[in-house]
Design goal:
about 400 residues; alpha+beta
Length: about 400
């Protein structure tokens, strides 16, 4: 019974904010392979505005690395826009709004980083989009002065949705010079080829984004943007794509369980000598292949679960209110699964609830009630199946304590 993840039976509301048209067509035709300019027409003012950016920069005590400033591809040193937090705050890297204002006025682009952790509307949006797409999500905002360019042509190592929030920005997108780059294969490894492709090749997107427009850029696709007549702001939503290579990495890690692969190489062995390496490589390769072939999905899943499920935090829990709700829990209280919480319920005796960082076991007698209360819908304590009200209180209290469930008004 899988937990939060992509579900083709629902509307995937966050993903629909990023793509106009049919989501099945996007999945089959564009995802990971083609750029797409969409005109959803619904503004993004509910997610982020220039006023919100000003509040973050001036009133929220922002610190590095939540802010980056750049001009023409060159990133400004933190010391040029940070300073002391003042009396009562022994902090040396708090953002100085006056310094940011001066840099912005001189043509620098302001990059607000990790807004999926610092701005409430985007915290919720990232949680939903990660559930819709099945890949971890991060969100930055780029605010660019008129007629300015923050970064030259480059590629990202994750897929990107660009949501235009304010102003107009001209985007140019080119086909990759390095297809489907991994996280350890940045564009700087191919900087000459990137520059040549951006200069000499015809773009696949060469258009202006206006408020409400969205652009999908798969990882590896070259892109650059320039603000036009006024201040421009857009959200860059990065989807940290889970790849087949991730499975390969975990398969290799499991090979450490094979004693034959843990044996020492010969005394005096030089791994840089191809001739010596050729003597041991065939045997090592055979052992590795045998290890991979003997690995089952059940062997591999726990490792991938630990590695990937914690990449996005689930719905925030207000600690004080949550503790109060737990103390006041009574029949009739309404609860639901914590939004964005990745989980898997494994039947048996005991029933096992697998989470990103732990597993929890329950007696088989609560299986039906547990499955129902984890279905993503709201439920009242006292209405769960096959348990007395008192036993339901015990189950729900345990799930609240483990931050699996939250209460609703």
């Amino acid at each position: 019974m899988p937990g939060a993840g992509p579900d083709t039976t629902n509307d995937r509301p966050a993903l629909r904010r990023c793509v106009a048209g049919d989501l099945d067509e996007f999945t089959s035709t564009y995802w990971g392979s083609r750029a797409l300019l969409s005109h959803p027409t619904t503004p993004y003012d509910d997610l982020f505005t220039l006023t919100d950016a000003d509040e973050l920069l001036s009133r929220r005590g922002l610190r590095t690395p939540f802010l980056r400033i750049a001009k023409n591809g060159a990133v400004v040193g933190d010391s040029q826009f940070t300073g002391s937090g003042g009396v009562g705050a022994d902090i040396a890297d708090q953002v100085r709004d006056d310094k940011v204002a001066a840099l912005f006025a001189s043509g620098h682009t302001v990059v607000l980083q990790a807004l999926h952790r610092t701005w409430p509307a985007l915290v919720d949006f990232a949680t939903q989009l990660s559930a819709d797409a099945g890949h971890p999500v991060q969100i930055n905002a780029y605010i660019t002065p008129p007629e300015s360019q923050g970064f030259s042509a480059h590629y990202d190592v994750h897929d990107v949705f660009v949501l235009q929030v304010a102003g107009e920005k001209h985007w140019t997108v080119h086909e990759p010079v390095h297809v489907d780059p991994l996280r350890n294969q940045p564009w700087t490894d191919h900087s000459a080829a990137v520059a040549a492709a951006a200069r000499d090749r015809a773009p696949v997107v060469d258009d202006v984004l206006r408020p409400g427009d969205a652009l999908y850029v798969p990882r590896g696709f070259l892109h650059s943007a320039k603000a036009l007549g006024g201040v421009s702001a857009h959200l860059t939503i990065g989807l940290h794509t889970l790849t087949r290579y991730l499975v390969v990495q975990e398969l290799a890690a499991l090979a450490a369980n094979d004693p034959a692969l843990r044996t020492a190489l010969p005394l005096g062995f030089d791994p840089g000598d191809p001739a010596q390496l050729a003597e041991v490589l065939p045997q090592v390769a055979e052992l590795l292949i045998a290890s991979i072939r003997s690995t089952s999905a059940d062997d591999l899943a726990p490792r991938l679960r630990r590695r990937t499920w914690s990449a996005n935090r689930p719905e925030p829990i207000p600690p004080l209110a949550h503790a109060a709700a737990l103390t006041a829990l009574a029949p009739g209280a309404t609860v639901r699964l914590r939004g964005g919480l990745r989980h898997r319920l494994v039947p048996g005796d005991p029933v096992t609830l697998q989470l990103a960082d732990r597993t929890i076991t329950f007696p088989a007698t609560v299986a039906d009630a547990l499955a129902e209360v984890l279905d993503g819908q709201e439920h009242k304590v006292g209405t769960l199946p096959a348990l007395s009200t008192e036993d339901q209180l015990v189950l729900v209290r345990r799930l609240l304590t483990e931050a699996v469930l939250v209460t609703t008004p």
